[in-house]
Amino acid sequence: MILELEIFWDFSIYLDISNEVKFAWKIQRDMAERGHSLESIKASIEVKKPDFEAYIDPQKQYADAVIEVLPTQLIPDDNEGKILRVRLIQKEGVKYFSPVYLFDDGSTISWIPCGRKLTCSYPGIKFSYGPETYKGNEVSVVEMDGQFDRLDELIYVESHLSNLSSKFYGEVTQQMLKHADFPGSNNGTGLFQTIVGLKIRDLFEQIVASRAETPVGAAKA
């Protein structure tokens, strides 16, 4: 007898790039690479803004994980969008999903790892973690502000993160090094996308395992 397993799951991810960062990136791309004027860039943004606010932005309140990209707080009044502050916002209570945490689950942590174990040029790197309320949901938030000088040193940060859903020690660092040429590979955008990728793999494997344990007579219930 062949038992067919239909695998369905509902897990959503939202990439939330702040207006300041989007504007900085668009200026860099459209002015430097395409020769557009500042006025035309602003007009283009304003045209798309109503539809974005009406149909796209509200979706983040339903997401199970949000990767929020913001301007750095390490450099006062920085508007270039080159150094980023990135937050991984993880909804609590989602089946098969255990939020990543830094040091101590449920605590509020602020951590500057730069020093003997991590090379940091100006403006440095800062991590934080703690519980919050986001769009009416209880969440856990891990935040990285700044960027790595040497990706191989990420292993030191990885050793202080828990619930990564990695299969072996150093898998996050390995994946980051494998894609070192990708945009965002040295900052929180690459780090948190890599972690979310591992979490999705783990979700799938848990669901497959749970369905495989379902009795044959209840498989289609």
Description:
The protein is an alpha+beta fold and 221 residues long. The chain has one domain (13-207). The protein is built from 5 helices and 8 strands; from the N terminus they run E-H-H-E-E-E-E-E-E-H-E-H-H. Helix 1 runs antiparallel to helix 2 (38-56). The longest helix has 25 residues, at 188-212. The radius of gyration is 20 Å and the shape is globular. 25% of the residues are buried. Mean pLDDT is 87; it is low at 1-5.
Main pleated sheet: 6 strands, mixed
Total count of domains: 1
Q: Which regions have little confidence, pLDDT < 50, spanning 5+ residues?
A: 1-5
| Mean pLDDT across every amino acid position | 87
How is the topology of this model organized?
Elements: E1 13-17, H1 19-32, H2 38-56, E2 65-71, E3 84-91, E4 101-102, E5 109-111, E6 125-134, E7 137-146, H3 154-158, E8 161-162, H4 171-178, H5 188-212
Parallel strand pairs: 1-2
Antiparallel strand pairs: 2-3, 3-7, 4-8, 5-6, 6-7
